[in-house]
Amino acid sequence: MIDEADYMNKESVQPALRNLMEDYSQTVRFILTCNYPHKIIAPIHSRCQGFHITKTDHTEFTARVATVLVTEGVEFDLDVLDSYVKATYPDLRKCLNLVQPNSQSGTLMPPAAADKSMRDWKLECVDLFKRGQTRQARALMCQSSSPEEAEDVFRWMYDNLDLWGSTPESQDQAIVVIRNGLVNHNSVADVEINLSATLIELTQIQ
């Protein structure tokens, strides 16, 4: 069982695994999990049976967290819950782990009221974007995210299109901006500047 196989080096480790799978195919079954199948080389794909696990949509995700809160007798405001969902989707476990320490009083507290040790920078960013403090949110995101997280950050932008526009047209525009930022990420000299520029474009969408 190889978890997060997409993080294995495509130039050295994955070709070696391909040979290993070939040598022991009669006696060993290999199970690989990954978040980004396109990062797995074609020879390994051809030796595996693929299974795609579809993530839950925002509505189901929010409903599940709300069900847990109701079951535990925790009162919550939908807008506060939405902030946690936007920061953690589609990672349900992470959402519940962040909600738990902030609901010990019997009421789900806003992200800004959370203990710093239990906070996630995306929570604070969502809160800042909702309050219209886009410059502060942009600065926090650029400072807190590492270059290695870039693809996850762009995916987070895409998963939360309603932060950038309230109409289908503005959200379509946001998708194009996010795509351009992701494409540029692989060619720019400074990834922070590219991320900052992408966020500026997103917050200027009308």
Task: Supply database-style keywords.
10 helices; 206 residues; single chain; 3 domains; Helicase, Ruva Protein, domain 3; mainly alpha
Write a structural description.
There is one protein chain. The model is unreliable at 113-118 (pLDDT under 50). Helices cover 53% and strands 0% of the residues. The chain has three domains: 5-45, no CATH class; 56-131, Helicase, Ruva Protein, domain 3; 132-206. The N and C termini lie far apart (47 Å). Helix 6 runs antiparallel to helix 7. With 206 residues, the chain is an all-alpha fold.
> What is the CATH class of the largest domain?
Mainly Alpha
Largest sheet: none
How many domains would you count in the coordinates? 3
Tell me what portion of residues adopts beta-strand conformation: under 5%
Fold blueprint:
Elements: H1 13-23, H2 42-45, H3 58-71, H4 78-88, H5 92-99, H6 121-130, H7 134-144, H8 150-159, H9 168-185, H10 191-203
Helix pairs in contact: 4-5, 4-6, 6-7, 7-10, 8-9, 9-10
In short:
The protein is an all-alpha fold and 206 residues long. It has 10 helices and no strands.
